[in-house]
Amino acid sequence: MDKLAADPLIVRKPSGQAGFTLIELGVVVVLLALFAVFTIPLFSATGTSDLGYSARRLSGTIKYLYNESALTGREHRLIYNLDNGTYRARIVEANGEIVDLPGFGKETSLAGDVSFRDLQLPGRGTFTSGEVTVRIYPSGWIEETGVHFEGGSGDVLTLHVMPLTGTSEVFEGYKTL
Q1: Structurally, how many domains does the chain consist of?
Q2: N or C: which end of the chain has fewer CB within 10 A?
Q3: Could you read off the pLDDT of 32-45 as tens digits, one per residue?
Q4: What is the domain range of residue 160?
Q5: What string of H, E and C letters represents the secondary structure of the chain?
């Protein structure tokens, strides 16, 4: 048996050169640059749209209340305060008493400098100030609602709530129902 092959302490020199070639390093640098070009612009928009965040958050709250109403068999209410730019949820108890919904009873403010421009409820009209209550029935129906958000720079988003599903669509600009 070969003495060199049997002794683990003896290290053989490799026959070729070890390491990366200049071409391989260049390819890696180009790939990293392409990755950066496509991903870094995505980070610049993160967290800048208070208007979109407010619409998505309200949309999620509405869908949650819609599902909660169907599961519990109790009417829920979403109360908009158009003057303060806040909303809160309440539940109608079995005895008819209206109480704050645990976890959602506190007022939730719109993000940043976003405010409610108006609230449209077909059959009830358009509201620009005060408190407006939207009912969510346990039978799986919510009043069709158009919520218009306005940002500090004058941008407007429309949130349209579908009555039969409790889902919402968000549109850029002012859309009437």
Answers
A1: 1
A2: N
A3: 988 888 777 666 55
A4: 50-172
A5: CCHHHHCCCCCCCCCCCCCCCHHHHHHHHHHHHHHHHHHHHHHHCCCCCHHHHHHHHHHHHHHHHHHHHHHHCCCEEEEEECCCCEEEEEEECCCCCEEECCCCCCCEECCCCCEEEEEEECCCEEECCCEEEEEEECCCEECCEEEEEECCCCCEEEEEECCCCCCEEEEECCCCC
33 assigned to some structural domain:
no
List the structure tokens of 161.
């709530």
Burial of 86 per CB tally in 10 Å (0-12, 13-18, 19+): middle
Q: What is the pLDDT of residues 128-153, one digit of tens each?
A: 999 999 999 999 899 999 999 999 88
Q: CATH number, domain at 83?
A: 3.55.40.10
Is the whole-model pTM more than 0.90?
no
CB count in 10 Å sphere of residue 62: 25
